[in-house]
Design a protein that fits this description.
By secondary structure, the chain is an alpha+beta fold. It has a domain at about 120-215. Helix content is about 45%, strand content about 25%. The protein is built from twelve helices and nine strands. It is globular. The mean pLDDT is about 90.
């Protein structure tokens, strides 16, 4: 099977994926901004002493439950060079793109805007001055009180797995000073902070994360962007748990990339299909389909 899959050019497989996604999106309105998560995953089974494992950057839409596209990083390169190329390949009009700190680059921000989308990008110490400016500004207690009074603050509290987790969100459009101190971030209109406070066994841990945005959003919309990004990480986890991607030792790059596309399509199909029993795991959905494929074949063909 590996030799057969390897004969297919990955760009052909990706084009078939895009055509199928275009059919899935037919009739959708442009009025609602979708959240698109971009992140990379290494296929660890595609490694030996002669080659590095394949690393693929993917774009995922949780509202559709679909991977919109993917692109492998070039040998001796990284996600920073692959992300702009992936963005240029996709129709991202009227979407909000979320990316981890590695993708927080001026060129990537500009590319997102050029493709008629907006961004919510994580900021860490790899941009030291930008990070410190945002941190000092949003951690000021008096300013936080102002944001709370102006409905620019949102909080959630969850209890699960023996711990209490409080999430707090602050967002502001007061960024003219930041643009002057850190020029070159095209379209920067807002900054935000997400604070996670976890209490477990009388121990408390606090983590602050910082973000730049190219649009003015409500604080609840900002929270949705921050929380929404973990969805692509969850889907990457499912590729390993459901399809054992990391444990599949296929060394041919074309074959590994094509199978990655097929697995992602399968996850989207499984998420969209309805089964006789609700709340089935992905593995049980595959098992149910395998037991009686004729029961679900019509539904599959009509998707």
């Amino acid at each position: 099977m590996e030799r057969v899959i390897a004969l297919i050019k990955p760009n052909v497989m990706a084009e078939l994926q895009r055509k199928w996604l275009h059919l899935q999106a037919a009739g959708e309105t442009d009025k609602i901004k979708k959240l698109i998560n971009i992140d990379g995953k290494t296929i660890r089974g595609n490694r030996n002493k002669h080659q590095n494992p394949l690393h693929i950057v993917s774009a995922y839409s949780d509202s559709d439950g679909l991977f919109l596209g993917q692109l492998p990083t070039e040998e001796k390169s990284n996600e920073i060079t692959a992300i702009p190329k992936l963005i240029a390949q996709l129709d991202l009009k009227n979407t909000i793109i979320t990316i981890n700190a590695i993708g927080t680059q001026k060129k990537i921000a500009a590319t997102i805007l050029e493709n008629k989308a907006d961004y919510c990008l994580a900021v860490k110490e790899n941009h030291q001055y930008l990070y410190e400016d945002i941190k000092d500004y949003l951690c000021d207690e008096q300013f936080q009180e102002q944001l709370k009074q102006n409905n620019r603050y949102f909080r959630t509290i969850e209890k699960a797995r023996g711990q209490v987790e409080m999430r707090e969100y602050f967002v502001t459009t007061d960024v003219q000073w930041l643009n002057e101190r850190n020029p070159g971030w095209e379209g920067l209109k807002a900054i935000g902070m997400a604070t996670n406070t976890i209490e477990r066994d009388d121990q408390v841990t606090v983590e602050n994360r910082y973000f730049i945005l190219s649009l003015d959003v409500s604080v609840k919309e900002f929270a949705k962007c921050v929380r929404g990004h973990w969805k692509i990480e969850s889907m990457h986890w499912l590729l390993d748990v459901v399809f054992r991607e990391d444990a599949t030792h296929i060394l041919h790059k074309n074959a590994a990339q094509n199978l990655n596309i097929l697995r992602k399509l399968a996850l989207g199909v499984l998420k969209a299909m309805t089964f006789d029993r609700s709340r089935l795991s992905y593995k049980n959905k595959i098992f149910s389909f395998g037991l009686k494929p004729e029961r679900y074949l019509r539904q599959l063909l009509e998707m």
